[in-house]
């Protein structure tokens, strides 16, 4: 039996509306236990619209690395908690690439999130060019070390999501074997900081996961769930993925 409870995360990005909130919450509410942990990360404006239900929790897609003050447009960790979020995605490749988020800022965001009581879902992943240059493991080690080398105590309170940039929104998913190899590497790499926490760490996979390909991914020993973009906007598909994760 798997020792880590599977986690399925929906990243709606800048999509969705009140109708989708209603349809998704209704569909998830009727799923029968046992279920994986299910986390919905809609745009923050919709957090308050989700009815509370034991079948799912809510999260955000980003947070400020600052605590309070003159930071126009930013949202603090405390504000996310007050809005009903229990977790927050940190370091998504779109934020790294489009908003210039560097490892140092991402590291600070992970720290601030945990100190406020949020679970950070730290996204790491290589670009296609880095994979082709056989730098995948080196890039991932750098992204992980940037967060945990100076603050290893944060590992026990985190989730890590492996998201190869070339697989996000492209329809080109990593094979289960490719993903498993990376997850296993990351778990072993992180064990240098805290062996027990690395063993208990949930490492989920993200990148073009669908109801059709998730089962093979979930069957791998070190894949503890998925972070889902496009398919999380389709109620039937997302519900099906959650149902399959509980059986893994
Ligand atoms: C993502 O948003 O992190 C993601 C994995 O998206 P998609 O499932 O659409 O590839």
TrEMBL record:
Keywords: Cytoplasm, Gluconeogenesis, Glycolysis, Isomerase
UniProt pathway annotation: Carbohydrate degradation; glycolysis; D-glyceraldehyde 3-phosphate from glycerone phosphate: step 1/1; Carbohydrate biosynthesis; gluconeogenesis
InterPro entries: Aldolase_TIM, TIM_sf, TrioseP_Isoase_bac/euk, Triosephosphate_isomerase
EC id: 5.3.1.1
GO molecular function: triose-phosphate isomerase activity
GO CC terms, sorted: cytosol
Signal sequence extent: none
Subcellular location: Cytoplasm
Active site per UniProt: 92 (electrophile), 163 (proton acceptor)
Chief location of this protein within or outside the cell: cytoplasm
Amino acids binding substrate: 11-13, 169, 208, 229-230
Top-level taxon in the UniProt lineage: Bacteria
SUPFAM superfamilies: Triosephosphate isomerase (TIM)
Catalytic activity: D-glyceraldehyde 3-phosphate = dihydroxyacetone phosphate
Pfam families: TIM
Biological process annotations from GO: gluconeogenesis; glyceraldehyde-3-phosphate biosynthetic process; glycerol catabolic process; glycolytic process
Xref: CDD domains: TIM
Similarity comment text for this entry: Belongs to the triosephosphate isomerase family.
Functional summary from the UniProt entry: Involved in the gluconeogenesis. Catalyzes stereospecifically the conversion of dihydroxyacetone phosphate (DHAP) to D-glyceraldehyde-3-phosphate (G3P).
Classification via HAMAP family: TIM_B
Listed NCBIfam families: tim (TIGR00419)
Subunit: Homodimer.
Protein's name according to its UniProt entry: Triosephosphate isomerase
Organism in which the protein naturally occurs: Rheinheimera tangshanensis
High-level lineage: Bacteria, Pseudomonadati, Pseudomonadota, Gammaproteobacteria, Chromatiales
Gene name linked to the record: tpiA
């Amino acid at each position: 039996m798997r020792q880590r409870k599977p986690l399925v995360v929906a990243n709606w990005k800048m999509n969705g509306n009140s109708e989708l909130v209603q349809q998704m919450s209704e569909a998830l509410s009727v799923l029968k236990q046992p279920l994986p942990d299910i986390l919905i990360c809609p745009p923050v404006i919709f957090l308050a619209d989700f009815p509370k239900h034991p079948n799912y929790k809510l999260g955000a897609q980003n947070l400020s690395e600052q605590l309070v003050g003159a930071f126009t447009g930013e949202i603090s960790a405390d504000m996310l908690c007050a809005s009903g979020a229990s977790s927050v995605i940190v370091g998504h490749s779109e934020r790294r690439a489009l908003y210039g988020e560097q490892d140092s800022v991402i590291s600070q965001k992970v720290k601030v999130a945990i100190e406020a009581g949020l679970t950070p879902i730290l996204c790491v992943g290589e670009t296609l060019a880095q994979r082709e240059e056989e730098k995948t493991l080196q890039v991932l080690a750098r992204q992980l070390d940037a967060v945990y080398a100076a603050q290893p105590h944060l590992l026990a309170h985190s989730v890590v999501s492996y998201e190869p940039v070339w697989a996000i929104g492209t329809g080109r998913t990593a094979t289960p074997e490719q993903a498993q190899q990376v997850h296993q590497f990351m778990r072993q790499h992180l064990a240098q900081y805290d062996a027990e926490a690395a063993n208990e760490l949930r490492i989920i996979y993200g990148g073009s996961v669908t109801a059709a390909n998730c089962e093979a991914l979930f069957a791998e020993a070190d894949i503890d769930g998925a972070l889902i973009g496009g398919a999380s906007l389709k109620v039937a598909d997302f519900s099906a993925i959650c149902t399959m994760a509980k059986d893994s």
